[in-house]
Amino acid sequence: MKIFNNNISFQSLILFTVFALLTFYIPFNEFGCTRNQIIGVVLVLLALFSNTIVNAMQITYFVPYVSATAFSLFGTGLHIITLLEFIFFVKVLAQYKLSSKELPFLLAVVFLELFPIIVFEMPLAELLKLICCILLFICFVKVVIKNKGTLELIYMATALGVLSSCIAGMYYVRPVSEEVFDKSITWLRYCGLWTDPNFLGCFCLIGILSLFRLKPQKFVFQLMIWAICAVIFYYGTLTMSRTYLVVFALLLGVYFYRSMKGSGSMAFVAILVLAVAIPALIGYVEMIENNRVVGNAESVTSGRFEQTIALLSGQLSDFSLLTGCGFNNWEYIFTLAPQRGASHNTYADIILQFGLVGIITIIVLLTKYWKTVKEMAKFLTTINGLPMICLLFYIGTLSASHYEFVYVIAALFYSEYKAKPSIVMKRV
To answer: Cβ(375)–Cβ(421) under 8 Å?
Structure first.
């Protein structure tokens, strides 16, 4: 069966569809019920009987349901995403072995994290999580590069996962006295399955940009894509997130800038859209600013930057400055600035978790592969790089280093860069 420009067997399509429907059904059930336990087992069995391409689609579909959600397991008692990843790793690495560079890199990561485990009591489970994240990146790259036409299928699964999780969030039965909307502010902000509306905003934009990557063969499918984009965008606006609107405006500008080159009609359309969109976005941001205040008239979002600075300042006088306190070692990170929360900045988290050793290592790698880095930067400014641009913007406002979607989006970007190096210099 042909979907867009890609062939997928009827059996694979059925396996993915059943997986998607069962996942969508989980939040509708009572937290921790037997029904969800059974569904979790069935999801794992479906993954076992699927090929590596379908496994990749299943993971990308499932990721929005377990990234920064209030109760990521929905009371299933199984860490489903970890089991799905393990099945994926075993299948991919059995077919495509780790290269001579990948295995030493994994061993080096394990060695560098031994010190935080011993000195800063970093949980061993977080080391395993870090290894899983790296393997997820490696395996996605291998599957996409080795299987032509896989990229659009994975992007389609990503968009469908975002859409279904947004809808399911409206009906999620929370196990505590919480509601779908955050009422700590004067305007209702849609949270859905997530603990932070900004994560929902990030997923909405990634879902929209994933749909932009699809190339349907029939006009009716193109109309369907635009309709889904509109629905996802609507859920994004319900978050009342200024970050969402600002990043959306930036991505819209990049999209039209690249599209206008060599196309007079597209330039005309872009001018019309931007003439309407920019004033509307400015007005909407001002409305959010005026209404998103609590009783003491202090902005709800104020303090995030101060939290980041407080944590980094606390590390300056701490021994963890040298080696970092370890991957996702939040218990220790919170001691660096008592009474403060997370940094809400993944770039700051890299410093906190890996210290000067990690920063120096990154600088050395960037210097060694500088030519490749420059080519990837050029590729980043194409329309194909928009999902990665979105991710790079958003992780500056979220602590997301331990979530799978970061590594999946990065892997898809890198895979496309490796598969089509000629597009780096091509005008869109």
So the answer is: yes
Assign 217 to helix, strand or coil. coil
Q: Six-digit token pair at 111?
A: 């060695």
Type of residue found at 327: F
Check: CB of residue 134 under 8 Å from CB of residue 408: no
| Encoded amino acid at 328, one letter | N
Q: Are 15 and 51 in contact (CB under 8 A)?
A: no
Assigned token pair, 390: 């979105």
Instruction: State how far the Cα of 47 lies from the Cα of 45, in Å rounded to an integer.
Output: 5
Spans of all domains in the chain: 8-240+292-425
Query: For every one of its 428 residues, what pLDDT tens digit does the chain have, with 9 covering 90 and above?
Result: 555 555 678 899 999 999 999 999 988 887 777 888 889 889 999 999 999 999 999 999 999 988 877 555 555 555 788 899 999 999 999 999 888 889 998 999 999 899 999 999 999 989 999 999 999 999 999 999 988 888 989 999 999 999 999 998 887 765 554 444 444 443 467 778 887 888 999 999 999 999 988 877 777 888 889 899 999 998 998 887 878 888 887 787 777 776 666 555 555 555 566 555 666 666 665 665 555 544 444 444 456 778 888 888 888 888 888 889 999 998 898 888 876 677 889 999 999 999 999 899 899 988 988 988 999 988 888 888 889 999 999 998 899 998 999 999 999 999 989 876 443 333 33
To the question of pTM greater than 0.90 for the whole model, the response is: no
Give the residue among 100, 27, 14 at the shortest CA–CA distance from 58.
14
Q: Cα separation of 243 and 153, whole Å? A: 28
Distance between CA 406 and CA 428 in Å, rounded?
25
CA R_g for the chain? 22
Per-residue tokens: 217:
């063969």
The whole-angstrom distance between residue 409's C-alpha and the CA centroid of its chain comes to: 6
Which residues pair with residue 189 across a beta bridge? 182
